[in-house]
Design a protein that fits this description.
The protein is about 15% helix and about 30% strand. It has seven helices and 13 strands. A hairpin with an 8-residue loop joins strand 8 (about 115-120) and strand 9. It starts with a strand and ends in a 30-residue tail after the last strand.
Length: about 260
């Protein structure tokens, strides 16, 4: 599954892809380039169609869906870890799934790449990879968002909380070799062409459109990947380079694609 994403561009750049995009007042236009860790439930700029004016907006939402029926956030805390990713297979085919219930609350998650770990025979630690698209510095993964009314822990006042999940699918031949271990191995984020990303947040999407988008498999030739240094450490890299820069690990065989 995908629990680490990278966003290393100025947030204003999103308007290059969506010229009519409206930035909601609560979003900080100086949003710093970051590595977002899903289990921190942090904020990320999300593109969605506002239900009041039917226009595309961008606002900060928390990663990790809180269902609209939740009234006690603390009691839901442990279960929230399971809401960072949504399996594409459950959205249309499982009426009991929460994803089926919010399937019309579609959104886009902008990023410059995501991280995944590979098990390598003979090495104790998994090797982190940075994955992105060759033809788009910034790309947009499809997601679903939820709006929940919960009391503010400090003021006690009820507030609307916007939270999101990232959609995953069965891995393509590249990602099957990288995400090759763990209970959720052989999964990858549902990566889309820009045309399909735009369609995802279009209200005129049909059921057939929905099925086509969920079944889309990003061609390996369109993707780039590289090994990087440990991504969840506060320690400085030995070579003092950036988190997304290539780091060559000993004993790691090339991936065959």
């Amino acid at each position: 599954m995908c629990y680490d994403i990278s966003f290393t561009v100025n947030i204003k750049k999103l308007a290059d892809y969506f010229p009519d995009l409206i930035f909601d007042e609560q979003i900080e236009m100086n949003f710093e380039p970051v590595h977002i860790i899903g289990h921190n439930y942090g904020n990320h700029p999300i593109i969605y169609k506002n239900r009041e004016d039917e226009l595309l907006h961008c606002r900060l939402m928390e990663w990790g869906c809180i269902p609209f029926f939740v009234k006690d956030e603390e009691a839901y805390k442990k279960q929230r870890a399971t809401m960072l990713n949504a399996r594409s297979e459950k959205i249309l085919e499982d009426p009991k799934s929460y994803w089926y219930k919010i399937k019309n609350r579609r959104c886009l998650i902008p990023m410059t790449g995501f991280y995944e770990h590979r098990e390598v025979k003979g090495l104790k630690k998994k090797i982190p990879y940075f994955i992105g698209l060759k033809n788009q510095e910034t790309f947009f993964l499809p997601g679903l968002y939820s709006v929940t009314e919960l009391p503010n822990k400090e003021t006690g006042e009820v507030e609307k909380r916007f939270t999101f999940t990232l959609i995953t699918r069965e891995a393509n031949t590249l990602m099957a070799q990288i995400h090759n271990g763990g209970t959720n191995k052989n999964r990858m984020p549902l990566m889309l062409s820009f045309e399909l990303s735009r369609k995802w947040v279009n209200d005129e999407i049909t059921l057939e459109d929905y099925k086509v988008i969920l079944a889309y498999e990003m061609p390996v030739d369109n993707m780039h990947y590289k090994t990087v240094y440990s991504i969840r450490t506060t320690e400085q890299r030995p070579d003092e380079k950036g988190k997304n820069e290539l780091y060559e690990w000993e004993g790691v065989e090339e991936i065959m694609v």
